[in-house]
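Lab notebook page, bench 4
Experiment: in silico fold of construct C2
Operator: M.H.
Input chain length: 438 residues
Purpose: comparison with the prior construct
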Amino acid sequence: MYKEQLIEKIEKRELTIAVIGLGYVGLPLAVEKAKAGFKTIGFDIQQKKVDMVNWGINYIGDVVQEDLAEIVKSGMFRATNDFSFVKDCDFIAICVPTPLDEYQQPNISYVESSVKEIAKYMKKGTIIVLESTTYPGTTEELVKPLLEEGSGLVCGEDFYLGFSPERVDPGNLIYKTKNTPKVVGGVGKDATEVIAAVYRAVLSSDVHEVSSPAVAEMEKILENTYRNVNIGLVNELAQLCHKMNISIWEVIDAANTKPYGFQAFYPGPGLGGHCIPLDPYYLSWKAREYGFHTSMIESSMMINDRMPEYTVERASKILNRYKKPLNGSKVLILGVAYKQDIDDYRESPALKVINILEEHDAVVTYYDPFVAKYTYKGESKESIKELSKEVLEDADLVMITTAHTTVDYSFVQRHAKAIFDTKNVMKNITKRNNIEVL
């Protein structure tokens, strides 16, 4: 019913867009929509984020400060924490967190609460898209009934609904929100076409339409489960190669010379970030509803989840060679971000490594040029200010857990007593008598 007039509004840039959640996914998306000529309103429950956006101050690495300042100044983008703004919006993208609870089960409370608030204010002809990663079926089994019940409107007749998974890779210098291909699955063909039209008006990349939200939801889970399983494979092989005195890194480099049939994945102290460590749990949880056990996926999850413990075990053995017990040893961690050259430490394995080290009474400090301070399990730690000769020489063991390119690893090698490199970032250091690699 509303398809033609919405398509016309998209073409004329008369569509008003809302983005719920202004984090690593939502803020870059909102900025691109405003830059494409759509009046955009961002919502977040954190007043600090709302204020920073309205002041034109960026807090996300993948957003260009000048772009944000310009669209705020021009009036194309503003932020609020008042949900009533939804009544003025034609397109609403939900980009809220979907973490796991203490039992490693999906916590979709942020999605649920956002949808309930949207339902109070949405009007006929509204387009609603869930971008938050979740289990297959969320859009149609949870979001659709909540919207219909709360608004009194009918999906497919009075409003359009769909799922389009976020594909954010913080720190990626090539692929950003604007040029990363998008997948769209709507509840009905009209919904898919209208949602795809919005993204095509904003992005420079391909927009791939699928037959349903469930396909799009499963596609997102497949992306990250694929990586989880393959990383689990190399993490297990890394442990075996260590026992066999074979370099897993050299093995991977050799295998990577094959021009087909192989993609390189690398071991490390564990998995971090907001997707790869979490998404397989969503799938395994949903699979149990159908009496199906994702045995291979769960095996990789177990391997990856145990890597922080294995890393500490290896660290303890290195210290033993220097006649040092883990208890009381000074361990300097290099890098707590979950990947190189970013400030994001969500689910970072380095934090788990630090926690286990401290449980064994090691004295732990860390240096990260991107993360000045972090909070984990209710406790906060601050980075040392400078990676000096004195700091390195004072440590009984230096453990590299994030491969930041801004660190002078030659300097580290010259002054550290012992180094445990879990990322193989020091592979080009020639003098390696004090370096052990995962």
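Observations: The mean pLDDT is 94. The domain at 226-437 is CATH 3.40.50.720 (Rossmann fold).
Next step: discuss at group meeting.
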